[in-house]
């Protein structure tokens, strides 16, 4: 006898979760008073699960509206976080697969158009440009809805539990400025500068001559216009440029905030060597990036993140990054983990998206808005559960006779 759809999904997610499942065939399972309801709206959802088990199939079904979540999506992901097909007995897996297979054979749904498929040699300049454009050249207006006035798309640093997102982003920029010992008249290179938040902070708050580069044309245009609006064009500049094409050298400091994740492990050594070559002796590098919490034999990016969010992105453990920095010529002076701060940052971005949901959908479409809603909630959970981390690593290019330029204590 063919099993009801809700019972089939219930087999996968478990019988004891606080989630209600309601399916298109009228079947239901789970507690009646559940705060989160998972609605299976179409047999195409089962076809997607059959063709791509795990997060990719679920994401495709959610992005296309074939699965709906009533209630808080973060709460739904939190409840489902420990559910995997590996937790089902092999015999039951076969029965579930057999039930879903006819749906795939009947519908064979194509992947949504939003999936990224960059072409060319991985981490070549051309392919990196495609990957960055996929995520960042979406809509500056959309990002304003999500990020807020700071337009800063990296982990904030919350001085207190009650700090606002804007206060926390300003605190992050100031923390980096302090670690780099920025002072009036110095020269800063900010690689992967986004919408120019660090560049403008360095110029406005510390009188630094700051150059930012980004592969996103939309970011560069927005940032340069904002620099001019604030009257900072005498000190600050943002260029649409690959960091590898920066010709200037002799910088006092380099900041890399959220770029290393896009570099690729095979390019890490040349990446850090290039940054070291842009610095004067006793110049400092602050590398701020998402990391893997442990060293694994096989490191795979979640397929949903790889297809929809950060194509070609790769995460490395902090130990490997420090080793690569050290081998490239940096002495490591300080390191810290801001994992919990990134969870708070993502919660704030998620709240901004929900508050501006209708406007965001009007700007980029419901499918893309769903991608951002899903990935921010999932990433928040990842940081909370220590599946991913955020590290700042401070290094210095030593001068003659091993001089670092650091004070005896502190930065």
From TrEMBL:
InterPro entries: CFA/CMAS, CMAS, SAM-dependent_MTases_sf
Recorded superkingdom: Bacteria
Enzyme class: transferase
Keyword set, alphabetical order: Lipid metabolism, Methyltransferase, S-adenosyl-L-methionine, Transferase
One GO MF term: methyltransferase activity
Pfam annotation, one family: CMAS
EC number: 2.1.1.-
Biological processes per GO annotation: methylation
Family to which the UniProt record says this protein belongs: Belongs to the CFA/CMAS family.
Name assigned to this protein: Class I SAM-dependent methyltransferase
Species the sequence originates in: Pseudonocardia hispaniensis
